[in-house]
Amino acid sequence: MNRIPILQMGQTLLVTIQVDMQDQMALALQDDLANKISTSGARGVLIDISALEIVDSFVGRMLASISGISRILDATTVVVGMQPAVAITLVELGLSLEGVRTALNVERGVELLALTRKENAFAR
């Protein structure tokens, strides 16, 4: 099974999903990200799904699960690049992706992570 690469840029992990995610690949990504956050001390996770044309309910739930795991490990997850058809499908499936932060593109996602870090610094 192919694994999705996780790149580290400072305190942020970058995941670019460029293939249709199968269920096993999504589960592997969840495990890989949890381990990478834990070992690297990353404070942010940016998941770029701009290449995905279809997101089924399982992958949608996995994105929400990844966000929850990241939060517990003291990292913020932002999903970027969602295609309009994917957003419509998720809403039609009744998946609100509660707790998942989203941004239109990578640039805005990086800005959102920086803003979140500042807010968290003030809260501590």
UniProtKB/TrEMBL annotation:
Gene3D superfamilies: STAS domain. PROSITE patterns: STAS. It comes from the Bacteria. Residues 2-113 form the STAS domain. This is STAS domain-containing protein. It comes from Ramlibacter cellulosilyticus. The lineage of its organism: Bacteria, Pseudomonadati, Pseudomonadota, Betaproteobacteria, Burkholderiales.
